[in-house]
Amino acid sequence: MSPRREMESKLKGESLVRHGLMRRYEGRPQLRIAPELNVVKIGGHGIIDYGADVVRPLADEIGELSKTYKMLIVTGGGVRVRHILDLGLDLGMPTGVLAELTSKISEQNAIMMAVLLSQYGGMRIHTADLLDIPMLLRMGMLPVTHGTPPYGLYEYPPDIGMIPPHRTDTGALLAAEVVGAKRCILVKNVDGLYTENPFVNSDAELIRDIPARELLDMQMEDLVLEEKVVELLLHTRNVKQVQIINGHKPGLLTAALHGENVGTIIRA
Q: Aspartate/glutamate/uridylate kinase domain: from which residue to which, for each copy (predicted)?
């Protein structure tokens, strides 16, 4: 048998799975591609599905803010995602196929948001275009992309059930992490994270600030964001918190970008 051929490198002969090797590279700084970027995720179910009365004022606020702040707008899916999931689950579609189907909805919302923001330089981009963000920002553009991560047919099997675990909240966090963004803000239709669903229990308490590990340990039945986001915060290198705000209340996004502690902050 011929010996394995190797190129001279510090990883020569390594399997790339050895724990000691992993620890050797732990803590090394990563290049931050867009360190002043603010990733703002616009919920599909919580914002876009409400139509012009909610979306237009928010779009105008985003447009004005884009004159001062560097932003990437990420869109969610919404009620149409629920509809296609309902059909797909009944038909027994594999999780990867469900992920492929639902991604089309957030793409449609990205197109609409880009058109709404066109007067402010709004430009629809794809996930493969993230490395172009520094150039686009220097050109005065306001990039808009869909939030579904590009796992597609290769989506991870969920711990429970069949619904794809990596959806648009997760996609926004992953985009923020890979470009080394300054902030990741999730714009929803509630004031933040509650102890229970506030639409079901009016006595639910608003949680203003909480570490990701503590939130996971609470094992809450329902969350305002995808649980995968909270899990990933335990491992992110660049993004150290996710902020949840109410997009139905004008001015809250402005306050969040100013660094104010509005809504809920989940800390890594």
A: 37-221
From first to last of its 268 residues, the chain has per-residue pLDDT tens of 667 677 888 888 888 899 999 999 888 888 999 999 999 999 999 999 999 999 999 999 999 999 999 999 999 999 999 999 999 999 999 999 999 999 999 999 999 999 999 999 999 999 999 999 999 999 999 999 999 999 999 999 999 999 999 999 999 999 999 999 999 999 999 999 999 999 999 999 999 999 999 999 999 999 999 999 999 999 999 999 999 999 999 999 999 999 999 999 999 9
The structure tokens listed for 191 are 């004031």
Sheet (strand 209-211) strand order: 122-124, 142-146, 70-75, 37-42, 183-188, 241-246, 264-267, 209-211
Domains and CATH numbers, the chain: 33-267 (3.40.1160.10)
